[in-house]
Amino acid sequence: MNLLESVSVPCPYCGQTMDLEIDCAAGNQQYTEDCPVCCKPVTIVVAIASNGTPSVEARPEDS
């Protein structure tokens, strides 16, 4: 199991790919990161499965 996983998710505003490094050892997470293309704030929601695999969703900050 890798502790850091590279994932790509689309920005919910402009659709461009955001490349993220997820720390799987930190468990489930929620944080805000600005899109590198349109600079809008995106809420990143991370759920870590029991096998250590992350599921990552990018949501508009206002939802």
UniProtKB/TrEMBL annotation:
Top-level taxon of origin: Bacteria
InterPro entries for this protein: UCP037225, zinc_ribbon_bacterial
A Pfam family per the record: Zn_ribbon_21
Name the record gives this protein: CPXCG motif-containing cysteine-rich protein
